[in-house]
Amino acid sequence: MNVKLDDIKLLREQTGAGIADCKEALSRSKGNLKKAKEWLKQKGFDKASSKGEREVKAGIVDVYSHGGKVGVLVELLCETDFVARTSDFKNLAHELALQIASMNPLSLEDLLFQEYIRDGSMTVDQLVKLAIGKLGENIQIGRFERVALGE
């Protein structure tokens, strides 16, 4: 099937996936954008499972304060400093800090199985796996701390 360039551009804008992956997804889904997104999502999860054993020794610490009443520190780890400096990685760290601030998870396991606050159709674990698929490196949440005024 011939895939339209405009469809590839649109899918790439919506998912952040590579051009070749977008073209393949659209081709496999016969031009259906929704099915192409699902295929890319599954491919990201498959990619994530193959990277789980790699050592993470780089990353960032993100700091978030919600109106001076709640503060969060989150350590997000990856394999290389190159990925740690990308906007996608920094955005993931910030999204995790927002999740922790609003949902107050008691442990890392609790956090990973929570429904993602911006998209109830996925868990935080799935959000991290999507980032692994997109960035191509193992990503792990190291640790986090949430402090609320008066607690």
UniProtKB/TrEMBL annotation:
User: Pfam families from the entry?
Assistant: EF_TS
* Organism superkingdom: Bacteria
Compartments where found: Cytoplasm
Translation elongation factor EFTs/EF1B dimerisation domain location: 71-148
What does the UniProt keyword field contain? Cytoplasm, Elongation factor, Protein biosynthesis
Q: Which GO terms describe its cellular component?
A: cytoplasm
Single GO molecular function: translation elongation factor activity
Q: Looking at the record, which segments are called Involved in Mg(2+) ion dislocation from EF-Tu?
A: 80-83
Location (main, coarse): cytoplasm
Please explain the role this protein plays, according to its UniProt record: Associates with the EF-Tu.GDP complex and induces the exchange of GDP to GTP. It remains bound to the aminoacyl-tRNA.EF-Tu.GTP complex up to the GTP hydrolysis stage on the ribosome.
Q: What family classification does the UniProt entry report for this protein?
A: Belongs to the EF-Ts family.
- The identity of this protein, by name, is Elongation factor Ts
